[in-house]
């Protein structure tokens, strides 16, 4: 299977690449600064220097047959300016899809467990979510709204608090049935594993799930 990743990063994106290569997937990634990719990994994947928020670049990408497109864009937690990067990437994919000869067969997005349906969370959790994520929460909600209005086949993975542990076990839960807990965290390796495994199950999966 050929996996395309928008904006490789040392977080989730890197783990998806590592696990995807271990399962003999072919991987291509769109990045702003290719020299930042570790040399021992760069020769194993196809690296393209494109801007994931540029609709012209996305249009070029979607002029080829894309089986799986994964959105792993993220911003630094202490970013100085308000961000709209998450929704801009997804908006570019949605708009480019309709003007290309081909399109993305399935779009996978990393989100947060409180996003969009967060108003139904218990007050302490909703307050903490909005306080700590701020503009990121707002932009992720905009992104999900864009997806819900589109017909783009997708899986939105919502995760609780992430850590860098080696443990990779995980379970999936329908978001509507999710009970938040401040004591639960999950490793980035587990999230990457979930992405890889759900690529094979995507036709059977709900469009939104929580990984815990």
Care to describe what's here?
This protein has 212 residues and is of the alpha/beta class. The chain has one domain: 3-Layer(aba) Sandwich (Rossmann fold), CATH 3.40.50. It has helices at residues 12-22, 39-42, 55-62, 85-97, 123-133, 135-149, 188-201, and strands spanning 2-6, 26-31, 46-49, 66-71, 104-112, 154-159, 161-163, 172-174, 185-187, 208-211. The strands form 2 sheets. Strands 3-2-1-4-5-6-10-8 form an 8-stranded mixed sheet, sandwiched between helices. Strands 7-9 form a two-stranded parallel sheet. Helix 2 (39-42) links the parallel strand 2 (26-31) and strand 3 (46-49). Helix 1 (12-22) crosses helix 7, helix 3 (55-62) packs across helix 4 (85-97) and helix 4 (85-97) runs parallel beside helix 6. The mean pLDDT is 77.
Instruction: Report the C-alpha radius of gyration, rounded.
Output: 16 Å
Order of helices and strands: EHEHEHEHEHHEEEEHE
Helix content: 25-40%
Domains (count): 1
Summarize the structure.
With 212 residues, this protein is of the alpha/beta class. It has helices at residues 12-22, 39-42, 55-62, 85-97, 123-133, 135-149, 188-201; strands spanning 2-6, 26-31, 46-49, 66-71, 104-112, 154-159, 161-163, 172-174, 185-187, 208-211. It is built from seven helices and ten strands.
């Amino acid at each position: 299977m050929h996996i395309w990743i928008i904006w490789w990063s040392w977080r989730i994106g890197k783990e998806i690449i590592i696990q995807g290569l271990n399962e003999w997937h072919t991987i291509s990634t769109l990045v702003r600064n290719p020299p930042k990719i570790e040399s021992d990994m760069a020769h194993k994947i196809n690296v393209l220097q494109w801007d994931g928020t540029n609709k012209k670049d996305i249009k070029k990408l979607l002029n080829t047959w894309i089986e799986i497109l994964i959105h792993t864009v993220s911003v630094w937690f202490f970013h100085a300016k308000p961000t709209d990067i998450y929704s801009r990437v997804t908006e570019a994919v949605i708009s480019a899809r309709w003007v290309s000869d081909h399109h993305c067969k399935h779009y996978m997005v990393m989100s947060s467990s409180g996003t969009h349906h967060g108003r139904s969370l218990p007050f302490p959790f909703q307050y903490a979510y909005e306080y700590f994520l701020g503009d990121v929460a707002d932009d992720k909600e905009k992104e999900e709204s864009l997806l819900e209005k589109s017909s783009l086949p997708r899986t939105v993975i919502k995760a609780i608090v992430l850590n860098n542990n080696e443990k990779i076990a995980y379970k999936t839960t329908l978001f509507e049935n999710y009970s938040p807990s401040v004591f639960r965290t999950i490793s980035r390796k587990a999230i990457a594993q979930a992405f890889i495994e759900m690529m094979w199950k995507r036709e059977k999966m709900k469009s939104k799930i929580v990984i815990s």
